[in-house]
Write a structure and sequence with these properties.
It is built from five helices and no strands. The protein has 162 residues and is mainly alpha-helical. Helix 4 runs antiparallel to helix 5. Keywords: Coiled coil.
Length: 162
């Protein structure tokens, strides 16, 4: 199961390997890559088996690094440690971020709507009709965003209470 490199045979040292004034042995450079290229590739699961002793259960997603170190050092689980629910925290953070973005968008569209309404009051009839079409579109966008905001508020506030 473990890879053991082949043992190298001792080579005969004769005078043909020595040069005139050099005391260094001349041999081809071996970087170890030529042997590695000939090895068959193994799936990652094989390496996981090699590096774990098999006596320890694998770390769970909720287990912190400190808990794992304590368990590995003492051989038994650490006491009084609560798992962290990372998925719930990430989901809550995403929803709060979405809530902030939607609120900003709602405020910008409201400001734009107010500007368009002011322009419509000062314009002639044809321009006023075009601006009123824009107003109705902005009002539809605001209604959709308002509904999204209400849903996000209820989700974020509901999760914070639990």
């Amino acid at each position: 199961m473990y890879y053991t490199p082949p043992q190298q045979q001792p080579q005969d040292q004769d005078d043909s390997q020595w040069t005139n004034n050099s005391h260094q042995q001349q041999q081809p450079m071996d970087d170890g890559l030529s042997k590695q290229k000939s090895l068959p590739l193994r799936p990652a699961s094989d390496y996981a088996k090699v590096f774990s002793s098999g006596n320890e259960p694998e770390a769970t997603a909720s287990e912190s690094l400190q808990t794992r170190r304590s368990r590995l050092r003492t051989g038994r689980p650490a006491k009084n440690l609560q798992p962290i629910n990372v998925d719930n925290n990430q989901q809550n953070l995403k929803q709060e971020t979405m809530l902030k973005l939607k609120t900003d968008l709602y405020l910008k569209i409201s400001e734009q709507l107010q500007l368009v309404l002011r322009q419509a009051q000062m314009s002639d009839a044809r321009a006023r009709r075009a601006l009123m079409d824009k107003v109705t579109q902005l009002q539809k966008n605001l209604a959709e965003i308002r509904n999204d905001l209400l849903g996000l508020h209820s989700k974020v506030n509901g999760q914070k209470e639990t």
